[in-house]
Amino acid sequence: MFGLGNRSEKDRAGEDLDRAIAACRASNDPAMGLSAAARGTILRAAHDDSARSGAFAPLFFPVRLVIAAGLVPAILVTAGVLLSVPKMNDAARPGGQGVQVAKLGDEVVFTFANGKRSHVVTKSTAPDRFDRSKAIQVRDNRFVDSATAGPNLVFYRID
Amino acid sequence: MARSPEPDATDESLVAAARAGDVRAFEGLLLRHEARVLRVLRYLRVAPSDVEDVAQEVFIRVFRHLKGYRPGGSFEGWIYRMTVNAAHDHRRRRATDSGPEVPWTEAASGARDPHPGPAENADQAELKGRLEAALETLTERERAIFVLREIEGLETGAVARALGITSITVRRHLGLARGRLRRSFEAPPKEKERNR
Fold this sequence. Notes:
The complex is a heterodimer.
Chain A: H1 2-26, H2 36-52, H3 57-60, E1 64-70, H4 73-79, E2 81-84, E3 99-104, E4 107-112, E5 119-124, E6 136-138, E7 142-146, E8 153-158
Antiparallel strand pairs in A: 1-2, 1-8, 3-4, 4-7, 5-6, 5-8
Chain B: H1 11-19, H2 23-43, H3 48-64, H4 75-98, H5 105-108, H6 122-134, H7 140-151, H8 156-163, H9 167-186, H10 190-195
Helix pairs in contact in B: 1-2, 2-3, 2-4, 3-4, 4-8, 7-8, 7-9, 8-9
């Protein structure tokens, strides 16, 4: 008798638990939401992160660097660093920041320190015409090219 | 020009755009998942006064870790995982900063949801209040598993993936949680007891 009574109480408790779960599920309000202030805080933080992070620079701040180098890289690097900034907005960083170019022996060495993990380097003999199908993906923040082979004047576009 | 979040866009496409720096796409994800995050935080016993702060933390983490999200996985599951982790960190901070945790007073006092659903009657509200209070008797892991499986309605495998544990662990802790909660329900509600 005691066993049956005890079992019944357990059953009832189990049923109540199931009904409580169902009540919780039924009251899940899809319209529940954050306050406008909280949303604003989140989106501001996301925007600030994007602005700080080089990873997002290409879309937010499409800075295009066109760097000329050639047979005498030391001279061209000094004189020929050109910037083309098509849609730069107020928050954009000055173009070229974080990119260093140096001639080491017969090589031109580009070092990227702008926070991006990968870059796309495109070469051309004309600054207004770059063939993206020949673009080179650079993943280790360093791009090395020959300073003696190829045309006398080479333009580099770095995205 | 920034575009408006598209209601028909999939989570995957919004994530891809947000990863590329589109904050408006991220806003789409935020609007789509904020109710879920708030609800889960509440059932994970984050105090009502802290829920919005913790939810902010969840979404800022989500944005900062979007690169870690693997396309093809469940974004919903990923959000759940972030939410459970943020609730855990919040509890730990609370315990470190101010000693014993502040009780979740609304449920403890038997207060009702300020915005009950249309179908919710007094009996349902009471049961819900009892369950919310009883959740406090569970361990953090049991609570997270119970909330995701029973209240959010995720499959066992989805709970396991969201929490980074095995399905066996989910089943075992779910059984323990249900046992504890059932025992809580065996005791009569405090108010009824007082009226006897």
